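Duplicate of #3305? Posting structure anyway:
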């Protein structure tokens, strides 16, 4: 291979860990935010009983609008950590 092609191939293979973390963080946060608000709008006698169990892991989270904002923050951090670790492991394997 020519040196330019090797550089291009190497650049395409590696992931930007921080960007992957931000994207996964936003997706997980937005997902929890939307699910919580959907259940709040839907209403009913036992609103989000299963989703409410996340309060065991995310202190302050409840199936309310304010809880959806708190849950977004927690889920964003968890998604960001997963993205950064996933990107780092992928990059380490790709370099090998």
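Output from current build:
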């Amino acid at each position: 291979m020519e040196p330019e092609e090797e550089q291009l191939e190497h650049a395409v293979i590696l992931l930007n860990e921080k960007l992957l973390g931000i994207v996964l963080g936003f997706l997980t946060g937005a997902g929890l935010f939307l699910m919580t608000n959907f259940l709040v709008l839907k209403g009913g006698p036992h609103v989000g009983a299963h989703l409410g169990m996340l309060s065991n892991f995310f202190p302050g989270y409840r199936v309310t609008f304010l809880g959806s904002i708190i849950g977004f923050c927690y889920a964003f951090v968890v998604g960001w950590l997963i993205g950064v670790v996933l990107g780092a492991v992928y990059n380490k394997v790709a370099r090998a």
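Confirmed duplicate; merging threads. The two ends are 18 Å apart (CA to CA). Helices lie at 3-13, 17-42, 65-95.
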